[in-house]
Every structure is written in C-alpha cells, then in structure tokens.
Amino acid sequence: MQLLLTTTVVVANVVGAAVVTAIATGLTGGLGILRSAGALTLNAVAVPSYVAMAVAVGTFWGTRRVRPRLRWVRDESAPTADDQRAALRVPLELMKVQLVLWGLATVVFTSLNATVAPRLALQVGFTVALGGAVVSANVYLLSEFAMRPIAARALSTHVPDRLQVPGVTARALLAWGLGTLPVIGLMELAISSLVQHGVSKTQLAGSILGLGATTLVFGLLLAALAARATVDPIKGLRLALARVGDGNLEVEVAVYDGTEVGLLQAGFNHAVSGLRERERIRDLFGRHVGEDVARAALARGDELGGEVLDVAVLFVDVIGSTTLAATRPPEQVVAILNRFFAVVVEVVAEHGGFVNKFEGDAALAIFGAPEPIVDAAGSALAAGRVLAGRLAADVTDCTAGIGVAAGSVVAGNIGNERRYEYTVIGDPVNEAARLTDLAKDVPGRLLASMRAVAAAEASEAARWEAGEELLLRGRTEPTRLATPRGSS
Fold first, then answer.
1. For residues 382 and 460, is the Cβ–Cβ distance under 8 A?
2. CA distances (Å), 49 to each of 118, 214, 340, 368, 450, in order?
3. Are 68 and 121 in contact (CB under 8 A)?
4. How sure is the predictor about 165, in pLDDT bands with cuts at 50, 70 and 90?
5. How far apart are CA 353 and CA 91, in angstroms?
6. Which of 15, 101, 392, 476 is the most exposed place for a label (fewest CB within 10 A)?
7. Global pTM?
8. 417-420, Cβ contacts within 8 angstroms, sequence gap of 24 or more
9. Which residues share a beta bridge with 405?
10. Is 307 within 8 Å of 412 (Cβ atoms)?
11. Are 320 and 341 in contact (CB under 8 A)?
C-alpha cells in the first residue's frame, strides 16, 4: 500500500509538470517568448527541482499523516467507527498535502519570474496554480483507487449512516473541472491577444492548438477514469445480483471507496450476509420440523389450530433402550441412536413422508401432511417394509419395533403464540404406537393395521396379509393386524 501511494504521488506530480509545461507554452506563445524574456533557463532549472522536492516532501509528509490512520490494518484488528472514517479520508489527506506544496510553488514561481519577466510572472503563477489543482485532484483520484482494499476492510464491519468523503457527484464535477482547466488558459490567451499587441497569427494558432490538444487528451483521460470509478462497481453489483437471483448466497463484492457507490457495495454485502443468515435459520428450522412443515409455517404464519386430514402414520421405537443406556457409555448410546435415526429419516423421506418428532429413542413419521401425497397409506407401508430391512442390516447394535396405521387426524400447530409445534393428533397415532409395542415381539419387528392396508393401492396391499384381531390397549375398537407376506 505504501508503494502504491508513493507511486500515486509521483505519477500525479509528473502529470502536473507536463500540464504546467503545456499550458505555460500555450499561454506565453511558445518557448521563444520565455527565452526572449530571460525566463527560460530559470524555469527549466526551477521547475524540475521543485517537482523533485515536492515529490520527496509530499511522500514523507503524506506517509506521516497516513500511517497512524492505518494502524489497525497493521495490527490486523477490527476497525472502529473512527478508524473507518480516518481510513476513508486518506485520499483527502494526501490531496491536502499536495495543495499546500503546489500553493507554495505558485508563490515561489510567481516571485521568481517577477524578477526577470514581470510581464509573464502572472501567467506563470496562474499556470502553476492550475498545475497544482491538477496534481492535487489526480492524487485524490489515484489514491482513492489504490486504497480500495483498505476501504473494503474498513467497510466490512458496518456501513456508516452518512458519507465520510466527497461523493460521486463531487468526483464527477472534479473530473469535469480538471478536464476543462486548459480552457481557462484559452480564455486567458484570448484576453491577452485583445489587450496586447505583437502576437502573430502563427503564435496564436499554435497556442490554441496546443491548449486544445491538452484539453482533449487530458479531459478524455479524466472522464474515462471517473466513468470507470462509477461504472465498474455497478457492473460488479449487477453480476452479483444475477448470482444471488440464481440462488448463490456466497456472493460478495469488493468495496471500492467511501462514496455512495462504495456504501451501496457494502450495503449489498451486508444484505446478502443477512440473506445467508436467514437461509441458515430456515435450513435449521427445516431440519428441526421438516421441510414441508417449514414451508407450511412460512406460508400460514403462526396460526394455531389444525385441519382434519387422512394420513398414514409410522411409529418406530428401539427395543431395550433402557438396557442399552445402562450398559453403554452415553456417547456410544448417542452415536448408535444417530445411526438409527439417520436410516429412519432417509427411508421415510424416500417414500414421501417426514419425521414429525423424535421422542428419546422413538420417532413418529407422517405421510400425507402437511402436504398431501398420492397413496399415503401405501407409502407408509412400503417405508415400513424397507425400514425393517435397513435397520436389521445397517444398525446391528439395536433392534426396533415398527407400527403403521392410517386414518383421519387433526394436523396443525399446537401450543400458544410464543411456543408451538406442528403435530398430528388422532386415533391412528395411538394405534401405530400400540402396534409398535406388539411388533417388538413378532418376527420381522413390523406390524400394520388392515385399515392401512385396505387404504393402500393394490400393488402395495398385495404385499401384506391379514392376521389376528386384537383390542389394543387404550382403544375401544379391535384392530385387525397385518404383516408383510413371508415375514412369519
């Protein structure tokens, strides 16, 4: 950064010296006028000497003013509000240094030329003042470009409420003013030709052509620099917005400066960061309650109550969980249950259901709510068959009973406005829980109600056979049991 800022000062002063030479030559009618006035040798020695001194002093002085403002960067600490403001105003500080040095140059060169060429002294002083404006503005524009990485870090923590530096309008006016400075020279030349005699047409034409060419070239360069400073970040924002629209929330744009454009870039980064946080919360919410429930909650809000739906319910419960907890360290029990539930969640999701809740070592899965699915009963029965086989093969540390039932339930948000959960309440839930208890003692560890089989499509119903009829605990009507064919 020090090298970039030093290069900025050097380049700006070289450009300023070139502009001074071009304008001075045009205003005075050519080098011959300076030579005849005895000022050519004086200025040929004084100008390079002063520019070299100004570069050296400006670099040293500017470094002394800038380094304390960037101490937080060297210390790799987070910037405070004061650090942010100080860092964003570095280009202004460097510009102030150049204004002082070139203001001094205006006084020096006016005084020196007054001793040998009083008639040209004011023209030389005017030209040096214009050159100082050019150098100072160039230092500001170029150092603002060089400071972009620091500005990005300064604005990464928070976006200020108001501008800390001149905005885009001031930058555009600055570029316009600098680009048209030689026009002031043309106007001064026109006035001089009217009030003075002895200026030939050739000298006048040469001066006008020289100053006109300086205006066109220098104005074009400044206009291009100012345009790029505004257009480039806008292009970056447009591309970043397109990526966000495609679902990529890892986008972050580089913050260029402390103008309105820079604050817009920083605001975009903060907005996308907020979207990432919201997406993370939504993802965690979906993991806790299920994606379908999450979508329904976002669509319906916090409305309590429910609706009557025909669903299928699958209940699964680990056999001998008390013994498992008593004979294994807690971390092993948790690891076993996580592998167990991983299979449950995967199989249920593959068949269109979702795990509504985990209850210690048991899980309740629902098919057909909150979003309806085709053949909810058949999906639950198929999930039960696959789950029984997967658990026996993949989770050998424990066994589980599985019960499947189907019927009408009330599905909705239960609780109060501050804390509620989506669940289903009804006889099929109780029936599935009782079937799970019975399933722990039958081959295959899987039982279903014939009502669920009867509600399933023929392709899945054909895979089940009817068993005995029992009055399950807590129910008033008997349940006809069903088992997968070939499981006995």
1. yes
2. 22, 24, 83, 87, 103
3. no
4. low
5. 61
6. 476
7. 0.50
8. 417/302, 417/304, 420/302, 420/304
9. 313
10. yes
11. no
Give CA–CA dist 294/302, Å, rounded. 11
Task: Sketch out the chain's domains with CATH numbers.
Answer: 2-245 (no CATH), 303-484 (3.30.70.1230)
Q: Could you tell me the two tokens for 447?
A: 């039982």
Tokens of 397: 């540390």
d(CA 437, CA 316): 9
Q: What is the DSSP letter of 225?
A: H
E-assigned strand segments in 198-353: 305-319
- What is the length of the chain? 488
SS3 250: coil
Q: Which among 414, 399, 302, 309 has a CA at the least distance from the CA of 357?
A: 414
102-141 pLDDT, tens per residue?
888 888 878 877 777 666 677 777 777 777 777 777 787 7
Each residue of 394-431: pLDDT tens digit? 888 888 999 999 999 888 777 776 666 777 888 899 99
Pairing of strands 399-415, 446-449: parallel
8 A C-beta contact, residue 24 and residue 127: yes
Cα–Cα distance measured from residue 80 to residue 70, given in angstroms and rounded to the nearest whole number? 11
- On whether the CB atoms of residues 139 and 12 are closer than 8 A, the answer is yes
Report the amino acid identity of residue 175: A
Residues with Cβ within 8 Å of 46's Cβ and at least 6 positions away in sequence, in order, are 108, 109, 112
